[in-house]
Amino acid sequence: MRLTNCTLRGRVALFTGAAVGVLCVAFSIVLMFALNRMATQNLTKEVTAVGELTAYYVDRGELVNPLPPIPRNLVRPVQVVDPQGKVVAATQDLQRKPVMAHFAPRNPQRVATAVVCDAVFASKGCHIIVAQQVFRNGDWTIYSAAPTLPFYVYPGVTAILLAGTVLFTIAVAYGARHTVTRSLRPVDAIRAQLDHIRSTNLGSRVPVPTARDEIFRLARSVNQTLDRLEDMFEQQRQFCADASHELRTPLTAIRAQVEDALLAPDDVDLEGLCKAVLPSVERLQAITADLLTLTRLDSGAPSEGQPVDLTRLVALELNGHEFEREVVRDLAPGVVVRGDPARLRQLICNLLQNAHRHASTTVTVTIRPGCGKGDPRFPRGVAELEILDDGAGIAADQRETVFRRFARLDTARSRDAGGIGLGLPIARQIAENHGGTLTIQDSDRGARFVVRLPLVS
């Protein structure tokens, strides 16, 4: 089975088991190497002790051939070589054998050790040989030896380590799989609940585990996302209902006028019919254009980013329209922002139309630069566009309501002069797409809309 097709439980168990197995094998190798080293040192000491005992008899002139007396627990292959290099005594197994080695001590201790392979011993293989020198009418050399130990030294220990490695690896892998399985049970519950959530039951939420761990935070984030999705779906349903209502009104008017004309075609004044239908058509066109604009803004469609003289843009917009209300200007020169001139001009136009629609006598337009006051959105300062009307104003608890799509206050509906409830939402979306804000601030009279955009310099 390919690893990519394994479950998370299987991958964790496989990785953990493999890692533990490798560590156990490495530990076993190190332990066996240490045991081999210790056993080899002990064996070398035993071989040296045999040579020292033989040297004692050589020094006293009590040398016999074969070499005993040597205690049985110390019997090792031993040879005694005289100063002429002749073997004069040896243990029983080395009788009539040539010298087992040809090295001699060259240190003050007069003892040397070496490993010699394929020498004179009956058992082939490598042997540890210790050479010791004794001075008696010349330098005599005593060679004592023992077969080298295998790497595993003690087969029982090796078997225990091997069995322990296998059992410990299996136990750890099983434990890791069991732990991951228990840890992922809340994830399975979250997945199962998400599978059952549809657009018709967005009120359902995934279970949140009691342990405040990563899965707890995941479940909480999922529920927060579901909250936002539910709000978005609710807004979408409300938007569709409001849009249908707004479109139905002019369509109903057009249908009624056309049906009246069909009932009495001879009495129809074509010019009057067209003049009666045209306002409804213009209203449909305005709604469609605003809906298209909102769709583009919501989709994050890229817009031009270039330095724009906001003061000049507002002046052009004011000079290009005739207003029934008095317009007071307070425009600071040289306030430059970065953005799309067409979008920014639409923002200004929507705010001016809203202020003109609700003002009693005067609309005040102000542009001024300011500091960002530590706001990371305005690192180089802020450009403030303020549009104030002297109308009835907007209550504090309704200031966010006017930015909802197709939302209009009762006073606006009763004295509506063409507004469809999309101008202010479009204006706020444009401001936010340019890294700024559009809010309603306190004022002594009327409504005070304030746009804040990042300054270029």
Automatic annotation (TrEMBL):
What Pfam families does the entry give?
HAMP, HATPase_c, HisKA
* The Histidine kinase domain, residue ranges: 242-457
Q: Which reaction does it catalyse?
A: ATP + protein L-histidine = ADP + protein N-phospho-L-histidine
Residues forming the HAMP domain are: 181-234
* EC code: 2.7.13.3
| Keyword Nucleotide-binding recorded | no
- Protein name, as recorded: histidine kinase
Superkingdom is: Bacteria
* InterPro entries in the record: HAMP_dom, HATPase_C_sf, HATPase_dom, His_kinase_dom, HisK_dim/P_dom, HisK_dim/P_sf, Sig_transdc_His_kin-like_C, TCS_sensor_his_kinase
Q: Which organism is it from?
A: Microbispora oryzae
Q: Where in the cell is it found?
A: Cell membrane
